[in-house]
Design a protein that fits this description.
Pfam families: fn3
Oligomer: single chain
Strand content: over 45%
Protein name: Fibronectin type-III domain-containing protein
Mean pLDDT: 90
Shape: elongated
Structural class: mainly beta
Distance between the termini: 161 Å
Largest sheet: 5 strands, antiparallel
Radius of gyration: 76 Å
Length: about 800
Amino acid sequence: MSVSIFTVTSKSAVLRWSRYEGALSYRVTASLRNSPVPVVFASFGQNTIMGSVNSLSPNTAYTFRVEALGSLMNMLADTSVDGSTAPDVPAIDMASSKESRSITVEFTEVSGATSYILRAETNDGSFFSEIPVPTSPGTVTNLQPYTDYTLSVMSVNSAGRSQPSISVEAKTVLPAPQFNTSSPSNSSILVKWEPVNHVVLYSLSIIKDGSYSQSRLNTTDTQVLFPELEAGTLYCIKGNAWSPENIPGDDFTICQTTRSPTPQSIALVVTSTPDAGIVVSWDPAQGAEQYVALSLTGQNCSSSSNSCVLTPLSCGEANSVTVIAVNKGGNSVPSYPVQIISFPCPPQPIWVEEVVAGNCSVKWSPVPHAEYYTTFIKSDDGIEGTCNSTEPRCQFHCSCGYSYIMSVFAHNQAGPSPPGPLVNHTTLPCCPELTTVSAVSWETLMVQWSPVRGADLYETRAVDATETVLCNDTAPRCALSDLTCNSRYSVVVIPCNDVSGCNLTCSSQTHETAPCMPEIIGVTQGNLSSVLVNWTSANTAANYTVTVIGTVGDMHVCHSNGTSCQVPNLPCGSVYEVSATASSSAGKSMPSYTIPLETAPCCPDNLTVSQVTQAMTNVTWSDANGAQTFIASLSSSRGNAQCHTMETGCVMGCITCGTNYTVSLEAISRTGHKAECTYHGFSASECCPSGIRLFRGTNNTLRVRWRSSSALTNYTAEVTGSDSTHVCSPEPGSSTCDVSEIVCGQVYSVVVAPLNRDGAKVTFCNSRMYSVSCVGSNVGMVLYRGRR
């Protein structure tokens, strides 16, 4: 079973509990906190779960107990809860309205109350409001003006609120009239408002700002005019409405400034910065917040200070200006018009004449109303000058290569004219100084000079008898190329710019180009070590140099002032390139086209002839520079032998033994150049004998016999066995000789060879094989076994 406090008042409490099964009734008791004795009680039926106990004391702490009772009034269950009653009911002392939207209530405060609730309601129930307040007095807001309300108050603590107090009646006051003000003139203020319902009278008062004196009046009308006020002064108007009960309603205050007085001491000054206009100034006017200046031509300007500028201002015009002062009250009466004449218009058109170089004149058309003119002249180096004149022209000195900017201003008492058109005048550029002309190649002249003022472009011109060569560049140098060789050119540098054109008065200088290129028409090799070079050329007074350069870097030269030159001491077997150049005081020509030159090949330093067989020789020689092939020849009265080879040797047959030969060699280059080379003669070896026979002799000897080819030839015979060699040499002219101490039973090799003049044996003669048998211990039969 549970119980809770639903609500309390100052003298009662409403409890809520849960139903208990079997209970036929419920008893609710209230006892002072911490006291077991009930102070009050109440009984309720079995179907009741909410009930109240009354006759409690305000702002008192209680313990509330609910008992569930059976049929014999016996207690089946119980539960309790602690709580307090609300504070005592306060009493209203007074309720009054000071404002049309609220009523203030004064009441007696009660003990234990933490706050209060003010209740306001209308009799017809159309309005009901409860507003919490902390203490007395309290104010009920958001009410309607001039309306009756019933008001009561309740005290509040943490337990709840008390019963409402005894109510009182009160009515809100009339609302304030809503004033609208204006200042018809700088000495009056007009106040208007809409009528207020239930009003019987209006009260108004006016006071000047900063004053303690005020004027009052009552009226039943809805507008009032306050005259004879100070201009440009702030006034505050306060007013309210009176009800039929003679109770004043809400106050309403509004402040209004009278219009300012007319501005005085108007002054006009023409200005040109930042824009052309009329500076209008005046003495300050009382109460003015803003000033407006108006011109006859329709311009206007405004300012919160005592000046402003009327723009735009046209040159040479007459105008008049008035000024009005403005504040919240409106506009003042305009000031009297003030007349002014603006500055003159700028002179135009402007042009420059330069009849004589260095003497320039600026001219323009006359300007109406101009008293005098000022010409500003500024050169591009920053130097400025001025010229004052009463006539429409001005003269000044102008130097070559300078650009000038000029402007002209017209003046009168209002000031100078606006800037007119700027005139640019650029004088002819100056002629270059320190011009140098040098040859950089056979056909090109490099022209250099010091930069000059005013030149945007330089035209370098070279003129000879047949052509004109031009070079245009912005740099102070120019290469004149593709010139004619061996010619005299007149060279001049002409400075130009886009504005004034070219200065054609600069002086020229003469320069000669290098000689023309020679043309080699022939290269002739006179002997093995020199060549003759011939050429053609149209040059005059030129010297020529012929250069012969080998592939290994060796160089040979010769010099001539004619058309031929011989180059000596050229080595054999070399390849050269031949060219010729011409030179004069103007420089060198281009080298001629190169002519190839190949000298005859060299002869080998060494050549050797060796006889291989009786009819064949081997000829060898050393390398020869420049030679690709060789033809070796052996010549005699008995016949010739020859071989053609790319090697450094060859074998030749058909040699006649015992014959003297002339030895020659022909070296041939790859292009067919030949060198004839001769050497010491060659003598062929003596002829080998024929018919060689071996015969048995006595006492273990053998006889060798042969047929001799010459009776003057010496021979030697060698008989070689397995153990020893036996040699015999007969007397010259003899064709037999004997060898002794022959051992039988062996095979012998027999060679018979002639001796050369130097005593050397011919080595290529054939040997013959013989078997020597034994007869006892002596030499027996000799058998021929053939050649080896």
